[in-house]
Amino acid sequence: MSNEPGTDTREHDATLRSRLFGYLSQVEITGVKAVGEQIVESAGGPDKLPEYKLMVAYGGGKDSTYVVAFVRAVQLYLQDTFDHTFVMRVANMRHAGVPQAVMDNIDRVYRSLGLPQDERVELITIDHTLIRPFERVLPLPQRMLDINRLDVLMNGHRSAGDGRPTFCNSCNLSVADFYGRAAWWQGGVDAVVTGDSRREQLLYSAWILRLAKASGIDVDKCRSLGFQGLLIALRGIGDTYFRELFGDDAATELAEREVSTGGRSAQPEFISIYEHVSYRVHDHWDLIVDFLGFQFDDLAFSFSESDCANPNLMAHLRGLRTQYVQDRTYEDGITEYLHLGKELMKKKEMPENLAQLVLSRYDSAEKMEQRRRLSEEFARDAFGLDEPALVAMVFSPFTNEGERLQAFLDRCHPDMSGSAERLRAVLDGTSDEAEAVAWLEGTSALSLSQLRTLYRSSLTDFTARDSMIARVRADDPHKTGVQTFDPGTGGLKLEMISGR
Questions:
Q1: Strand pairing partners for 90?
Q2: What angle do CA 454, 455, 456 make, to 5 degrees?
Q3: Least C-beta-crowded within 10 Å: which of 46, 98, 125, 292?
Q4: Do the bridges between strand 87-93 and strand 121-127 make them parallel or antiparallel, or are there none, so unpaired?
């Protein structure tokens, strides 16, 4: 691919570069030049830049938006300095929890940076196995929606609806798959730019390899293969994880969730911009909001990021759990989740005005009710799940051979209180009574085979490390302990909740 600009392109570059650099601090401009020098060296000299391809993974949130803008600044700087520059691939991963507002933000950012129609840029959207050119309005594939929905349900039933396991575990493995597909697509890329520090990368790699070793994977071999080795380790972790979730005989589910490990055609290096930038959004507020047109959407912007609406559902599930399982109130659960949310926002160094914006959405009973309705609507639209299915998930009545089934019926479906044995007979496979099957499937939004898998499975004990689900959450920093009131004993107990 030739990326030598014509006169019109040079003029456009000059105008765009001047505007973009006007929003950068002197420290950031120095960082742009330093990263540019690193890329020139990696490419083998300025003349080799047109053959050098660099990838940015873009989730559509405020932090990754900044990385995209920074890399575009580097691209324009090198074009101006050497009359050559690299090809920039921006890969956008989606899942059911990504609302249209995120795609709208991405589109505004791309247009502000002059990325569409630039021959030096590739803009792709990856929906599971489907890779397409980016478009602002791009329907999600039905099969991907079905996979996301089932993962939420099965993870949720195994974890009593706890935030991270329910929504993030399968999604994080999908992110690994995304990298394998995006970085090796059409011949691959030479480098991947990340905002993570070298220390963060090493800690993440060490965590992956610890999980991999516990799964019986040859971690020494993985280490020798660099980035691809990490993907191979994650494939092994994913295989262990999903076998726990769906069973060893779930061939279709296992195959559909297998992490892509790329190929031998390219072995991308990682280039970190961490030491050259600040990730405190108020340090580059004008760039993000005024120049790039980024909007903090009411649904997508939550406690830690602005690229996904699932955190709203995490808070909602906590409220449903305290209301229906613990015999307290919905508001109790939301208040407890807000405690976690405050900690997450503090760790992310979120500006006070944004933190207050998030918290203000829950600062009265009326607003909590409004957020509840919004969460219910999103659960239906994104995952096809109504409140009875979500309540069943936080109750987890089918695991441990239906240990909590009678309590679930008594509290949530009193008209079925006398049917526990009929339902258990269906769940254990000794009966196929049509009426009982229909009720179980209609209430849970799961198929009979999936319900029977849950019946044979245990509710995850997060105080132990005897399962991959428990081991993943054990090292996850996105959790905190909250003091909760136990109506049964009248005392207080410490409960760990996780979220995003």
A1: 56, 123
A2: 90
A3: 46
A4: parallel
Structure tokens at 327: 């015999």
pTM reported for the whole predicted model: 0.94
Q: Note whether 169 and 470 are within 8 A (CB).
A: no
Rounded CA Rg of the chain: 24
Q: Which of 211, 195, 250 is nearest to 28 (CA)?
A: 195
Beta strands 130-133 and 87-93 are unpaired
362-415 pLDDT per residue, tens: 999 999 999 999 999 999 999 999 999 999 999 999 999 999 999 999 999 999
Give the sign of the dihedral formed by CA 44, CA 46, CA 50, CA 53: positive
Q: Which two tokens stand for residue 236?
A: 């092994």
Residue 300 exposed, middle or buried by CB count within 10 Å (0-12, 13-18, 19+):
buried
The amino acid at residue 127 is D
Tens digits of per-residue pLDDT, 117-138?
999 999 999 999 999 999 999 9
How far is 240 from 243, CA to CA, in rounded Å?
5
Report CA 406 to chain centroid distance, whole Å: 35
Alpha helices in 348-444 (DSSP H): 352-360, 365-378, 387-395, 399-402, 405-412, 420-427, 434-444
The torsion angle over the Cα atoms of residues 331, 156, 305 and 322, rounded to 10 degrees, is 10
Buried b (16+ CB within 10 A) or exposed e, 112-133: bbbbeebebbbbbbbbbeeeee
Place of tokens 């074009």: 79
Contact 158, 245 (CB under 8 A): yes
398: alpha, beta or left? (left if phi > 0; alpha if psi -120 to 50): alpha
